[in-house]
Design goal:
Blueprint: H1 8-16, H2 32-44, H3 47-54, H4 63-69, E1 75-76, H5 87-99, E2 103-108, H6 135-150, E3 156-160, H7 165-174, E4 185-189, E5 192-194, E6 196-197, E7 205-207, E8 210-211, E9 213-215, H8 221-227, H9 230-236, E10 241-246, H10 257-265, E11 270-276, E12 286-290, E13 293-297, H11 304-308, E14 320-329, H12 330-335, H13 337-340, E15 346-350, E16 354-355, E17 361-362, E18 369-373, E19 387-391, H14 393-396, H15 411-428, E20 432-433, E21 439-441, H16 449-455, E22 461-462, E23 466-468
Parallel strand pairs: 1-19, 2-3, 2-10, 3-4, 11-19, 20-22, 21-23
Antiparallel strand pairs: 5-9, 6-18, 7-8, 10-14, 11-14, 12-13, 15-18, 16-17
The structure holds uridine 5'-triphosphate.
Length: 474
């Protein structure tokens, strides 16, 4: 779409062909530079694609039939069953890959975080139950710990969006890259998609000189990694595997050697970490196998009958819940590069502030718009030997989605999950933690209970909230 002309008349003709000429309603009141920006936005639009998305011609799946054919995916379960190798073998293999500098980290942090209601990028949310460390700092500390243990330098690729980029870039610069070598941190922006009015399909305007644009979903990661040069950078550094997490899960075990090892032992091009669903209609994507392909059926698409189906022992047939933690082979991403831009778009009903034709601001209190997003997990069916690794929710999943006061996935719940996990480690290491006390351990002090045992005094009693930082104060 790069050769479209920029004059008012030709833009008008182009847009009118798709009933979207209202976009230019305020054109003559715009300055020249504003006109240039708006014209560039229009030129970037794929209007025929947008029209077919609005009409719902993006392929309708018969989820009833799909779910009826869905089976449990190839997986290693949390107790180690399901694989021909042991957890210990997997860990050793992953440690070797880390030591050899074959792993890079990807954190996606481009989401607008509308449900959380925090006015900065989610990665800057203070999540540490005692330390108040931000989500970004959590993961930086984790990477520093892994670098130290395995003598490696894991490159960190952080995906942002228009909504989060500048603040994220400033935050890292102002905070000395959170202790990471700055040349190992690359912050890159994902693409955008326009939002449309859900009843008319008309493009929404954020202001007279701009469309209402939103990030194109975490499925935009592959194209953005490629466009930004991160994939080439990874290949140049000898990186073979990308460890991908989403910024809003502080328990995500970024660059966990066992997970990397399972991925390698399974010779998988894309491995996904899951948790066992607690109940049939739990609001997580269902990782399933359909005719030899691993894929995800979203909870909203899963018919109750399939969700409730059980095995002879009463366990759920479709048990694997997606937590958005994946491993990718760099070669796989390079191979499917162009296909990634043809991943399907998913529709989401959202509240999108905009202006009306008179230029008055509209702040909806109900979803008024349709946004179109690509999802990273749609890469699963394209991967050879896609594999699933089960983890325990208490060790791997504490999503921060909604503001405090909501019933699920709040910051308070995530803080409690972190404190509970670390309390468990302290107790295994021989300490006593009083009831109601919150604890938090920096991964640079210890990543496991076994290591912690060597770091804390015997018979330690913790009777007030306590943060165990890099070094232990006496
Ligand atoms: P969510 O889909 O939960 O969305 O993102 P969100 O943007 O954080 O929050 P809401 O829906 O507006 O309340 C899951 C993860 O994927 C990232 C987010 O930053 C988060 O880490 N993400 C999501 C992107 O990086 N880009 C996107 O376009 C969407």
């Amino acid at each position: 779409m790069t050769d479209k002309p920029l004059s008012f008349d030709s833009l008008q003709e182009l847009l009118a062909g798709f009933g979207q000429q209202h976009v230019l309603h305020h054109w003559h009141a715009l300055s020249q530079s504003q006109q240039t920006i708006l014209a560039a936005q229009v030129r970037e639009l794929d209007l025929p694609e947008l029209a077919s998305l609005v009409r719902g011609e993006y392929g309708s799946t018969d989820f009833m039939a799909l779910a009826a054919r869905a089976e449990s995916p190839p997986a290693v379960r949390a107790d180690g069953s399901g694989a021909d190798w042991s957890q210990a073998q997997a860990k050793l293999r992953g440690e070797e890959a880390l030591r050899n500098g074959q792993v890079a980290a990807v954190i996606v942090a481009g989401g607008q975080g509308t449900r959380l209601g925090f006015d900065q990028p989610k990665g800057m949310f203070p999540i540490g139950p005692v330390s108040k460390r931000t989500l970004f700092q959590f993961f930086a500390d984790r990477l520093l710990a892994v670098n130290e243990i395995y003598g490696c330098r894991i490159p960190l690729y952080i995906m942002t969006s228009e909504a989060t980029d500048q603040q994220t870039v400033d935050y890292f610069a102002e905070n000395d890259y959170l202790g990471l070598p700055f040349e190992d941190v690359k912050i890159f922006k994902q693409g955008t998609m326009p939002a449309v009015d859900s009843s008319t399909g008309k493009l929404l305007m954020q202001n007279p000189g701009s469309l209402a644009l939103s990030p194109d979903g975490h499925g935009g990661t592959v194209a953005a990694l490629d466009r930004s040069g991160c994939l080439a950078d990874a290949a140049k550094r000898g990186v073979i595997h990308l460890a991908y997490i989403q910024v809003d899960n502080p328990l995500a075990n970024l660059c966990d050697p066992a997970l990397i090892g399972h991925h390698l032992m399974a010779e998988s091009e894309m491995t996904t970490q899951v948790v066992r669903k607690r109940y049939p209609m739990e609001k997580v994507g269902n990782v399933v196998l359909v005719e030899g392909q691993v894929q995800i059926i979203e909870y909203s698409d899963l018919p109750a009958e399939a969700a409730e189906a059980t095995n002879a022992d009463g366990s759920l047939k479709l048990w694997a819940g997606n937590i958005g933690v994946h491993l990718f082979n760099v070669n796989f991403l390079r191979r499917i590069g162009s296909l990634a831009t043809s991943l399907p778009f998913h529709r989401a009903a959202k509240k999108v502030p905009h202006i009306d034709e008179q230029g008055r601001a509209v702040a909806p209190d109900q979803p008024n718009a349709t946004k179109f997003e690509r999802f990273i997990f749609d890469l699963l069916p394209l991967a050879n030997n896609a594999f699933v690794v089960e983890s325990l929710p208490c060790e791997a999943f504490a999503p921060v989605k909604n503001g405090d006061g909501s019933v699920t996935d709040t910051p308070s719940m995530a803080r409690k999950a972190i404190s509970d996990l670390h309390q468990g480690w302290l107790e295994q290491a021989g300490a006593w933690v009083d009831q109601g006390v919150q604890v938090e351990i920096n991964p640079r002090l210890a990543l496991t209970a076994e290591v912690l045992r060597e770091k804390i005094p015997a018979n330690l009693r913790i009777d007030a909230d306590r943060y165990f930082d890099i070094r232990l104060e006496s």
